Amino acid sequence: MRRALKELTETNTISILSLSKAYGLAGVRLGLVFAKAETIHQLSKMAHTFSMDHLQLATLITLFSEDGKNWRREAIKDTIALRYHVESLIRRILPKHEIQKSQTNFISIYAKGIPGGMLEDIVERTSSKFHPNIGLLRVTVNQRTLDGLNSLASEGGSDR
After folding, report:
1. Cα angle vertex 34, ends 105, 13, to 5°?
2. Where are the beta strands (DSSP E) in 1-91?
3. For residue 159, what pLDDT is reported?
4. Terminal alpha carbon distance of the chain
5. How many Cβ atoms from other residues are within 10 Å of residue 2's Cβ?
């Protein structure tokens, strides 16, 4: 790790690691910057513009505390369980469609052959995104998606 950071700082690379999306904290703008010392010095001249408020500091302290480690472990287990349930419902509603392999909180399905009304229902009830240019339905794994798919499955979603 140290060598990789050294290589980053010896090039003209600025690497920014955002904790906001990694931990589902979209409202908390918090990140780390790795760059050459002189680049950091130049950026530090503007630091007062981007100072951290109490919420950001509390978030940072909490995420890297012992409680934060436990929370991250639980959050990962919960997300994996939720993904399993969402995938199961998709397989029930769209039994002939293959779910693309992924290790993320998104599930991708090629939409070819999904009836238009069914596709629209899935997008509307789950806030999923359909990318018509590549024919891909991208479903975010969250509670809203699970609820929307549950309602479709209870209506006999695969019969449409």
Report:
1. 95
2. 15-18, 31-34
3. 43
4. 52
5. 6
Tell me the pLDDT tens digit for each residue of 100-149: 887 677 899 999 989 889 999 999 999 899 999 999 999 988 889 999 99
34 strand-pairing partners: 15
Closest by Cα among 52, 47, 42, 66 to 20: 52
Nearest Cα neighbor of 62 from 90, 38, 32, 28 is 28
**Strand 129-131 to strand 136-140: parallel, antiparallel, or no bridges (unpaired)?**
antiparallel
Q: In sequence order, what are the residues at sequence separation of 6 or more whose Cβ sits closer than 8 angstroms to the Cβ of residue 62?
A: 68, 71
- Residue 106 tokens read as 């998104």
Tokens 């998104």, residue located = 106
pLDDT over 60 at 39, yes or no: yes
Q: Scan for tokens 């436990």, then name that residue.
A: 70
Which three-class secondary structure state does DSSP give residue 53?
coil
List all residues 6 or more positions away from 134 whose beta carbon is below 8 Å from its beta carbon: none
Q: What is the CA radius of gyration of the chain?
A: 21
